[in-house]
UniProtKB/TrEMBL annotation:
One of its GO terms (cellular component) is cytoplasm. This is catalase. Belongs to the catalase family. The active site is at H100, N173. InterPro entries: Catalase (IPR018028), Catalase_clade1/3 (IPR024711), Catalase_core (IPR011614), Catalase_immune_responsive (IPR010582), Catalase_sf (IPR020835). Its EC number is 1.11.1.6. It comes from Kineothrix alysoides. Its cofactor is heme. Keywords: Heme, Hydrogen peroxide, Iron, Metal-binding, Oxidoreductase, Peroxidase. The keyword Acetylation does not apply. Heme binds at Y383. GO terms for molecular function: catalase activity; heme binding; metal ion binding.
Length: 500
């Protein structure tokens, strides 16, 4: 099947709305993309009959009035046109994503620049110049539809490759590490990142008690509270797979793999002050920037690179390479260029093409597998559960998710042929090493970056409870006594600032 067919089915036949409902929607949304043969747009599969009434405004055939007893009489319960119109309106939205709720989409293509045949048998990575269509969704991890784009957050950067072997989804974040290393803690962490359940307001104690409770989140703290946490343009962010995956080649050799996207236009971030100012000026600035750029006919481009590791190395390293609170040293595991992505098309129907995009790290093709990364193992099944809940059991037949001849047997089973034996248990990893990489990250910053980090931490931590402050400061002490001291001093400054 030509890959472009995936896209050809996106428009038209999107839902079996009746012509009456389409007219209703067309009235509300002049640029509606729900087609109806009543106003000479695209024909529907089985056109329903149009009612014989005429709208005084448009002069078009329409249901314009509810059915009543006389002109001023009550509306009839039997008015099925009214019922359908209102019910269609009520049910017309898709449930929001549980995480990464606010987002933006773009489309284009990916082409392989370097053969990865030595490392993976994935069909679309075998030879230079192989090209596949892509859909990308950028998002804010802890968000609702009203979250300002520039506020401190993790940005999602997910890519769907429509390959000849099936759909491959690569879900990335714009920061390389995660807060925790075991999926069972995710609901708790998300509750710490969410507004208070009492009053729906952000609560510094909820946020900072996350960093007090999970010392493994200290490395993430260094990334999240640096200026990398505040983003103005999605055209200038990196993307990281965060979780460690496995590549398997045709000879059956397996390697661990970490994914990296690099923006070809360069990386750009803003500081907290500018982020807060822009949040008021234009809360949707990064979505607008992406859309307007592509609408002008310009492209957004990223390079995909991977780091590969022999699984045997895990025994020699001072940290666990499957621990997603860690990065891999790029001098030991160099970045190998794989290919480039070009985004050149905006969505023309956000609800159908972006909101209903059901991205799932389990959408793999032979040659791409899961590793034993405990977060990735938790992610292996939860996305399809979320999507069944959000989009319904038929979500794989929504045009943007559809792939030809899909059946459950199309799912790749990771690790076939591996021999594993061991005692069943609930334990942490043997070498958690929560602070070494946090120190390395802090020491890599310039003086200005160190100062901004301390300022960003202190301006929030000052509003947490004293016991939470004490524990977080003790973690910072282990990263760098200088950092802890600077944060302490900044907190005194903020505490004394009038109007807080
Ligand atoms: C065990 C840990 C995790 C769980 C349980 C989890 C769960 C979820 C769920 C339920 C969604 C919403 C899916 C939907 O409704 O379509 C989601 C979205 C997402 N997750 Fe995770 N997640 C986890 C960790 C991660 C990590 C480590 C990353 C880093 C790459 C990540 C990246 C994303 C992205 C980018 C999206 C948005 C996808 C989109 O744009 O539709 N998640 N996650």
């Amino acid at each position: 099947m030509d890959n472009n067919e995936y896209f050809q089915s996106e428009k038209g036949n999107i839902r079996s709305t009746t012509c009456r409902q389409n007219e209703q929607m067309n009235r509300n949304q002049p640029q509606s993309s729900f087609p109806c043969n009543c106003n000479n747009s695209k024909p529907m599969a089985s056109p329903p009959p149009c009612p014989n009434t005429t709208s005084p405004q448009t002069g078009k055939s329409d249901v314009y009035h509810s059915q009543t007893v006389g002109v001023r009489g009550p509306v009839l319960v039997q008015d099925t046109a009214l019922h359908e119109t209102l019910e269609t309106f009520v049910f017309s939205t898709t449930l929001p994503r549980r995480l990464h709720t606010k987002g933006y989409g773009a489309f284009g293509y990916f082409y392989t620049t370097h053969s990865m045949r030595e490392y993976t048998k994935a069909g679309f990575l075998q030879a230079p110049n192989q090209r596949v269509p892509v859909a990308v969704r950028f998002s804010l991890a802890a968000s609702n539809q009203g979250t300002p784009d520039t506020l401190r957050n993790v940005r999602g950067f997910s890519t769907r490759f429509y390959t000849d072997e099936g759909i491959v989804d690569l879900l990335c974040n714009h920061l390389p590490v995660f807060f925790i290393r075991d999926a069972i803690n995710v609901p708790d962490v998300i509750s710490h990142l969410s507004p208070s359940p009492v009053n729906n307001l952000p609560d510094p104690e909820r946020l900072w008690s996350l960093f007090a409770k999970y010392p493994e989140a200290t490395n993430m703290m260094m990334w999240f509270f640096s200026d990398l946490g505040t983003v103005k343009s999605l055209r200038h962010i990196k993307g990281y797979g965060v979780s460690t995956y496995v590549w398997q080649n045709a000879q059956g050799v397996r390697r661990y793999v970490k994914y990296h996207w690099f923006p070809l236009a360069g990386e750009k971030y803003i500081d907290q002050q500018e982020a807060q100012w822009l949040a008021c000026q234009d809360p949707n600035i990064s979505g607008r920037d992406l859309y307007d750029w592509i609408a002008k006919g310009k492209t957004v481009e990223y390079e995909l690179c991977v780091q590969l590791m022999n699984p045997e190395d895990a025994k020699l390293l001072p940290f666990d390479p499957l621990d997603d609170t860690k990065v891999w040293d790029e001098t030991m595991y160099p970045l190998l260029p794989v290919g480039r992505m070009v985004l050149n098309r905006n969505p023309d129907n956000y609800a159908e093409q972006v909101e209903k995009l059901a991205l799932n790290p389990a959408n793999l093709v032979p040659g791409l597998e899961f590793s034993d990364d405990k977060i990735l193992q938790g992610r292996s099944f939860i996305y399809s559960d979320a999507q069944r809940h959000r989009l319904g059991p038929d979500y794989r037949n929504i045009p943007v998710n559809k792939q030809p001849n899909w059946s459950p047997a199309s799912m790749v089973s990771s690790g076939n042929g591996r021999y594993i034996a061991g005692e069943i248990m609930r334990e942490g990893i043997p070498n958690p090493d929560n602070f070494t990489q946090a120190t390395q990250r802090y020491e890599s910053f310039s003086d200005m970056e160190k100062n901004n980090l301390a300022n960003n931490i202190a301006s929030g931590l000052v509003d947490a409870q004293p016991n939470t402050q004490r524990i977080v400061l003790s973690h910072l002490e282990r990263v760098s006594p200088v950092l802890a001291e600077t944060v302490r001093n900044q907190m005194l400054f903020f505490a004394g600032t009038p109007g807080r």
